[in-house]
Specification:
The chain folds into two domains: 6-260 and 269-291 and 307-381, no CATH class; 498-874, no CATH class. Helix content is 55%, strand content 8%. It contains 41 helices and 15 strands. The chain has a five-stranded parallel sheet with strand order 3-4-7-8-9, sandwiched between helices. Strands 10-11-14-15 form a four-stranded parallel sheet. The relative contact order is 0.09.
């Protein structure tokens, strides 16, 4: 039994490193493929492993590749130190291993089952409700592990190691299947075993305030689909390998870069070939689990047919979730390998299969070294999720977690289409999945209410409004003349939808804007503005003609890379949606930035330009929580900005200090620097900080409407024209500067100068640490004044931002520990739980441990209860 001493922790982390090194052993993966010309991986392996020279080459490559992976994990250690660490990870300080066990850990045909079983015993346990859990005290190490290796392998090893599990008779098999289904709870990611969080989930229920429906599905569910439909799932990635530039430089395709980061020679074609090999290897392993141990496969069977035969030949597994079926297959494979002492060709086949499975899943989960939003976005672009994520019902099951049911309310974000029909189709996809989910018992068994309703021709069900009516009937129950005609759903989770517009940039448009000419756009980001407005108009049109749609569309957001479009681009769209009756708004902001002052400015712009007020929220807001000194250290003490971004940051800082009446002694230097940069760009001595600040405040107006005349029949557009004309009358000088920025009455040279780079260092930055901390306080003060909450997303922030661990997460400061910021309304979300390998319950658990590590002590649970209550108040 592993305890919780420093030595125990070291041993656990060494075990994790060992398994990560083994399952990332790309040298062995490539070696096993040498000479293989088709997908007959099992026949190739038999030939390779059938002679001593082949076996010896596998063993040597395994050892070398494992060492090289350790070298990547610990680049600062010497080779001798690495050898000591590997030896420790194999045996530990006090573990009594037999000589045979020590040899098995160095044998590639035997090591995997033994190591998975050790990990399972270290990390996993059974909770009182019969579900499989992660021991809370090892949650950080577990999270580190599952980014690299598929967690179902560990869970299956835990199940296979359980004593007294009889599966001989039909009745025993069915009981075992039900037990496995209860262990997994429709999720491949077990949650922690903290009883206080259990109580919070059971009594209050958690409210998911920030989740994108696309990006929710766990990686191993996509892997299960890839085994069954390889060409469809894996083939999708080939279509997105096209040229894609960075904002400032041609850096190639992001998805291709994602593949090459995983392995320098990895291509969509190679990935597809490997998944095909995995299909063969798993079929071979399942065939070996049959009672005779012999299975003759006709040569004319396709990969899919062979796999289907291997799965169908198993004992009846009807009515089980896809996760349960997959787990049962893995359990049988691991049990068979354990019974045969895990060696030989089957052991190598399982290791080969695991290497491919782990690599595939790593392409779906953001890794520790993949810092920044761009890296996250490449995962969303790779299309591997596309086929699986057409099934929305499975996503709702995953969130509801069977009988656990931790989530009370889910705000699911979706991107609107540019036509009413496109929006109707997407909404019907989501709601049909939701209906199917509502019609099920927590166990996943259908209650049959939809089949009964749909069989009645007098109850139409094809239109969006009729589907919405059915949703309400199942959510609340339906009564006629005091009699219940549709029973209320047994599912706890209830759904609200949040529209999120996409932040985009068009590099050719940016170039045309700077260079001018007859093709120059009418303003900055004109394409993004028009596309967002077109999508908004299409959605409003659908809402106006669809009864009940306004009830389920609860709010509006704008998401994606915030450096591609600022809040000002969406100001007009948010106003259009507000006029259409939407009351609640949020905005992704302050998450990814060049300078921390830019992130703080963006938060202020979102609040001001989008008119966020009581009941609204901002997503992430990371810049308002990071410790400035730590941020400077993370970027190496220097950043490069464009001149116009730097000028905007200084103008924002100057205005904030003036408005709050703080650090007034810094104003003279700020004033001089603002005038210097302003002259460098605009060459206008009349531009003052005050005038630039007023022009900055005008960015909420729509610059496109200056070409529309004085009136428009479109009510929304007419309102935008009046807003523009009002600014023109009240502040003509500020408006002139506003229009200059959009290319009106200004030379091309000025626009080109505005994009020139400038180096900012920590030592020379006029926005020193004290000023940055003051700007953070001003920003948080603005949020509190407006009664705007912050959606904090621990796993997303740890992966995308500068944090090295959950204990460093900035939200603990907002909550009064570590560096205290004063009162801040905080809610929790999971963002893209499939990409970050998490869940809402998992996010609460990570924040719980971070609070404890920062001195919250016995107040920790009280803080989490307060966050949950805040989430219920601020949910849309």
């Amino acid at each position: 039994m592993i305890g919780d001493t420093t030595e125990d922790r070291f041993q656990i982390r060494a075990q994790v490193a060992l398994v990560k090194a083994i399952t990332s052993n790309l040298d062995l993966l490539s070696h096993l493929e040498i000479g293989l010309t088709d997908s007959s991986a099992d026949l190739h392996l038999k030939m390779l492993y059938g002679n001593s020279e082949g076996r010896s080459s596998i063993v040597n490559t395994y050892a070398t590749g494992r060492f090289l992976q350790f070298r990547k994990l610990f680049p600062s250690l010497t080779d001798e130190a690495l050898e000591h660490k590997i030896a420790w990870s194999l045996t530990g300080a006090n573990q009594q291993l037999s000589e045979q066990e020590r040899k098995n850990l160095d044998d590639p045909s035997r090591c995997l089952v033994l190591l998975l079983t050790r990990l399972a015993g270290t990390f996993l346990c059974e909770a009182n409700d019969g579900s499989l859990r992660v021991k809370s005290r090892f949650l950080d190490e577990w999270q580190d592990l599952i980014l690299v290796i598929p967690p179902m392998l560990v869970s299956a090893a835990w199940i296979a190691a359980q004593p007294n599990i009889q599966r001989k008779t039909v009745s025993e098999r069915r009981n075992f299947q039900r037990k496995v289904q209860n262990w997994f709870c429709d999720s491949t990611l077990p949650v922690d075993d903290d009883p206080l969080l259990d109580q919070l989930c059971r009594v209050e229920g958690l409210d998911e305030t920030h989740m994108h429906l696309n990006g929710t599905t766990e990686a191993e569910k996509i892997w299960i689909d890839a085994l069954r439909k390889t060409s469809k799932v894996v083939g999708a990635i080939s279509g997105v390998i096209k040229r894609e530039d960075g904002i400032h430089a041609a850096i190639g395709n992001g998805v291709n870069r994602l593949l090459r980061q995983e392995e320098s020679t990895l291509t969509p074609k190679l990935l597809k070939e490997r998944v095909e090999k995995a299909v063969v290897l798993k079929s071979f392993l399942l065939e070996a689990c049959s009672q005779t141990g012999v299975h003759i496969v006709p040569k004319d069977l396709s990969l899919e047919e062979r796999y289907a035969v291997a799965v169908r030949s198993r004992p009846a597994e009807k009515g089980l979730s896809v996760i349960t079926s997959e787990a049962l297959q893995l359990v049988d494979i691991i049990t068979n390998l354990s019974d045969s002492h895990g060696g030989g060709i089957q052991g190598i086949a399982f290791l080969w299969y695991t290497l491919i499975r782990a690599q595939f899943c790593r392409l779906l989960v953001q890794q520790v070294g993949q810092t920044g939003f761009d890296q996250f976005q490449y995962i969303t672009f790779n299309e591997l999720r596309e086929t699986t994520e057409k099934d929305f019902a499975e996503r709702f099951r995953q969130i509801d977690r069977g009988t656990q049911q931790p989530v009370d309310f889910l705000e699911g974000r979706f991107a609107p289409k540019t036509t009413p029909d496109g929006n109707a189709y997407r909404l019907m996809q989501i709601l049909r999945g939701y209906l199917k989910f509502l019609d099920e018992e927590p166990s996943g068994k259908s209650r049959g209410e939809l089949a009964r309703i749909f069989s009645n021709p007098n109850i139409p069900h094809s239109s969006l409004s009729e589907i919405l009516h059915l949703v309400r009937s199942l959510e609340d129950g339906k009564f006629e003349n005091g009699r219940e005609v549709v029973p209320r759903s047994l599912r706890r989770l209830r759904l609200g939808l949040v529209v999120h517009f996409i932040k985009r940039t068009d590099l050719s448009e940016r170039e045309r804007f700077k260079n001018g000419g007859y093709l120059a756009p009418v303003c900055r980001d004109s394409k993004a503005r028009r596309e967002a407005d077109q999508a908004a108009r299409a959605l409003v049109s659908l809402m106006n003609k669809t009864t009940g749609l306004c009830e389920i569309i609860r709010g509006v957001d704008a998401a994606s890379n915030e450096r591609h479009a600022g809040p000002e681009v969406f100001a007009q769209v948010f106003r259009r949606m507000r006029r259409a009756g939407i009351k609640r708004f949020t905005y992704h902001v302050g998450e990814d930035f060049v300078h921390i002052a830019s992130g703080l400015r963006a938060i202020n712009e979102a609040v001001r330009f989008l008119e966020l007020s009581a009941g609204c929220r901002i997503g992430h807001g990371t810049a308002a929580g990071l410790i400035p000194a730590k941020w400077w250290s993370s970027v190496g003490g220097a950043v490069i900005q464009t001149l116009e971004d730097r000028l905007d940051d200084l103008v924002f800082a100057w205005g904030a200090l003036v408005q709050r009446g703080i650090l007034l002694d810094r104003l003279p230097r700020l004033d001089l620097e603002i005038r210097r940069l302003s002259m460098q760009i605009w060459q206008d001595p009349l531009l003052t900080p005050e005038l630039l600040l007023r022009a900055w405040h005008m960015r909420h107006i729509d610059p496109i409407v200056r070409n529309y005349g004085s009136h428009d029949v479109d009510r929304d557009r007419d309102c935008e024209i009046k807003m523009y004309e009002d600014c023109k009358l009240r502040e003509p000088d500020a408006l002139m500067q506003f229009l200059r920025r959009h290319g009106v009455a200004v030379s091309r040279d000025a626009l080109l100068r505005s994009g020139k780079p400038i180096l900012i260092t920590r030592e020379t930055d006029i926005l020193d640490l004290e000023v940055l901390e003051a700007l953070q306080s001003v920003t948080l003060g603005l949020l509190q004044e407006r009664r705007v909450a912050i959606e904090t997303l621990p796993s997303s922030n740890v992966r995308i931002s500068i944090h090295q661990s959950y204990n460093e997460h900035h939200a603990v400061g907002w909550l009064g520990y570590g560096r205290s910021f004063g009162p801040t309304s905080v809610v929790i979300g999971s963002d893209d739980p499939g990409i970050f390998a998490t869940s809402l319950r998992g996010e609460y658990a990570h924040l719980l441990r971070a609070l404890e590590a920062n001195g919250a002590g016995h107040e920790t649970m009280e803080i989490l209860e307060r966050i949950n209550k805040t989430s219920k108040r601020f949910r849309f």
